[in-house]
Amino acid sequence: MPHKANFLFLSIIFLLSCSPNKAKEKVNSSTQVTNELRIISRSPSTTTMLLTLGKSKLLVGKTPWCNGPESLEKISNTGGLINPDIEKIISLKPDYVLYSDGETSRKEAEKLQKLNIKTAFFKNLTLSDIDQSILEMGQLLNAQTKANEWTNQKDEIVKKVQSLSFPNNVKVLVATGRNKEGSLSQVYVAAPDSFHGELLKLMGVVNAVTKTYKQYPIWNQENMIQAKPDIIIELSPENKAPELLIENWNKLKTPAAQNKQIYILNASYVLQPSPNYPKLLEDLSEKIIESK
């Protein structure tokens, strides 16, 4: 049985790979809601947006992968995108069902739309997608003030991080998942055009992964040794013992291992393209600065 954290990351990659090229539908101001509604969130990203906007009380349904305060545990499970519980969604009588934009989610939404259930889509493929989606959801749920507050705080964090003095000419490898627990035989790494690659660009540091046709290619040990990363940061959404993960990396003949520049970020939000990305940006920058 696949490890839960790996399954979560693979689910995120699946959704990203299904994201259509067509422009996202805009939220029309005439659809803005002011009453207390019943909302189902069909992705971790849209759930995090709801929490960010202070609208968690509207939530009546979510996916198994939605993280947050303990109060979320009481919210009905509507299944994952691959195995949705359509009957449960219908029984909850939602006013809106919120999705991260993608081909799979649109197919599901079409079924609900035929039943006169309203749906809304929010892109989270890139940082600018998330920035725009927060504003659009704020408009939809009458939470513009909170959306603007998040935007201002995000801008301040980005400005602060970009003012830091990062080590020169170091190559950073961000690992986002393993196909086998305890092994580095197949590791997902963040390419420059990925969500995590964009965070490295914001900091102005060099990505050890060169441009590829995939956002998260799978690398074997030979790939990682050839890339010669100076810093390795593994993202782990579960609270695993960092020393065990680092022990694996220390066996690779890389500058990062030789100079003890391997770091683990344990947090629920590290893999998810969501409004938590300013915090992740701070976390990554702290590790890179720490390596100086």
Describe the structure.
There is one protein chain. With 292 residues, this protein is α/β, with parallel strands linked by helices. It has 2 domains: 4-161, Nitrogenase molybdenum iron protein domain (Rossmann fold); 166-290, Rossmann fold (3-Layer(aba) Sandwich). It has 11 helices and 11 strands. The chain has helices at 4-17, 44-52, 86-91, 103-113, 127-140, 144-162, 195-203, 221-227, 242-250, 255-258, 277-290; strands at 39-41, 59-62, 76-77, 96-100, 118-122, 171-178, 187-189, 206-207, 218-219, 231-236, 262-266. The strands form 2 sheets. Strands 6, 7, 8, 9, 10 and 11 form a 6-stranded mixed beta sheet that branches. It has a 5-stranded parallel beta sheet with strand order 3-2-1-4-5, sandwiched between helices. The longest helix has 19 residues, at 144-162. It is globular, with a radius of gyration of 20 Å.
Strand % is 15-25%
Provide the helix percentage: 25-40%
Provide the CATH top-level class of the largest domain. Answer: Alpha Beta
Here the CATH topology of the largest domain equals Rossmann fold
What is the global morphology? globular
Question: Strand tally, please?
Answer: 11
> Can you tell me the CATH superfamily of the largest domain?
Nitrogenase molybdenum iron protein domain
Distance between the termini: 40 Å
Helix-strand pattern, N to C? HEHEEHEHEHHEEHEEHEHHEH
